[in-house]
Amino acid sequence: MGRWTVAEQTQRERIREAVAEASKMRDRLDDARAEELMHALQKASDDVAAAIDAFDAKTDGKPWESMRETHLKALQDSIDEVTAELSETMGLKSLSHIEDALKLGIEDGVLQGVALGLPDFTDLSPSSRGKLISKVFSTIDRSAVNFLANYETQLLGQVAENLGGKIKATVLNGVLTGKPVREVAKEIGKAIPTGDKAAFKAAGKTVFKSAQQRAMLVARTETVRAHSEGRKTQYREMGVKKVEWLTADDERTCPECEPLHLRVFKVDDAPGPPKHPACRCAIAAFVPEEED
């Protein structure tokens, strides 16, 4: 049976520390992307609220049943315009977001190279590290970068499209059931500042809250995906052949990922991360055991 030498234990611990630090940087990037998407959703929710206010003013407080079809059609057109703008706005920074996540993944690999004590990574200055990251990033096929960015843009476009459909369905349901305009506006809701858990809980179930949660899920998952690809690119540059799967190893670890904890894969055979949407897992360069 193999055993860890003292040196290997120390090396393994250093790698784990590098992964933990890299995961924090990844989470900060994810938070920044979530903030961008929240602001886009806030503008959309304000625009929808303004369109509903205008609709209410044009109908002069009349009951839903007597509202003319032209006013309803105008409101639906306004909703389509708002969600089309939202889709474009949310997708604008997908490319830069994916590029930043890839570079952070490469940096994670570099930090693990330092932990491994590889010759080219000893006494690596911040300037040299930056140049190395840029050099490795330049080796990534641009079509692969664009694919990841376009995929995120497509997912966010679906969020905006579904949002528009649900807003119009909520409005139409209000017409059919005779709900007051203000009650319908409350069901549609608004975007909520990121990190405000109390506001999220107090908001209940609204159309915009659901869309925001979906957008945050996309941001989180695609950050992890690009970060992982950047890390694997750096592994190949360093000659790392195998990686070890690391879950968050806490009470929130899901049944899908839990069996993967500490499993070893060839770099190109690792099933992620992400293994699933909102996956919190990471991979680390594998340090083999010393044989007896």
Concise summary:
With 292 residues, the protein is mostly helical. The chain is 67% helix and 4% strand. The chain has one domain (6-240).
Q: Helix and strand string, N-terminal first?
A: HHHHHHHHEEE
Distance between the termini: 7 Å
Rg estimate, integer Å: 24 Å
Structural class: mainly alpha
Largest sheet: 3 strands, antiparallel
Strand content: under 5%
Overall 3D form: elongated
Strand arrangement within the widest β-sheet reads 2-1-3
Poorly predicted ranges (pLDDT <50, ≥5 residues)?
Answer: 1-6
Number of helical runs? 8
What is the total domain count? Answer: 1
Query: Helical residue percent?
Result: 55-70%
Overall pLDDT, averaged? 89
The count of β-strands is: 3
Lay out the secondary structure:
Layout: H1 6-59, H2 69-92, H3 94-116, H4 126-137, H5 142-177, H6 181-188, H7 197-202, H8 207-238, E1 242-246, E2 264-266, E3 282-285
Antiparallel strand pairs: 1-2, 1-3
Helix pairs in contact: 1-2, 1-3, 1-8, 2-5, 3-4, 3-5, 3-8, 5-6, 5-8
Structural account:
This protein has one domain. 67% of the residues lie in helices and 4% in strands. By secondary structure, it is mainly α. The chain has helices spanning 6-59, 69-92, 94-116, 126-137, 142-177, 181-188, 197-202, 207-238; strands at residues 242-246, 264-266, 282-285.
Features:
single chain, 292 residues, mainly alpha, 8 helices, disordered N terminus
